[in-house]
Amino acid sequence: MTDEFERRHGFPPGANEVRLADHADQAAARTLAQVSLVPADLITFYNSIGEVTWADVGNGYFVDPAADVLLRFKQYGTVDVGADQKDGA
To answer: Which residues are bridge partners to 63 per DSSP?
Structure first.
């Protein structure tokens, strides 16, 4: 996926990583499933994959660990992307 990166950008790609889930990641995925409206497929993903960092593939791809997602749910709550964003003003 990074074969053309150096030719196009003039420097080699950085470290791109897919980190397998450890026990802490899997526990966070189970908690995420219990406390939020997360699709079952994402929980299945988090049971196998702990984190994805592909900074030098296309525009960059990142999947945060389940523990970070849990923290953001606690801090900010959920976002309904189907909700009408107009406030009537």
So the answer is: 52
Helix-then-strand count for the chain, H and E: 4, 3
pTM for the model: 0.67
CA distances from 39 to 9, 27, 44, 78 (A): 37, 16, 9, 13
Give the integer Cα–Cα distance in Å for 68 and 72: 6
Integer Cα distance of 32 and 73 in angstroms: 9
pLDDT in tens, 53-87: 887 776 778 889 999 988 988 888 877 777 665 65
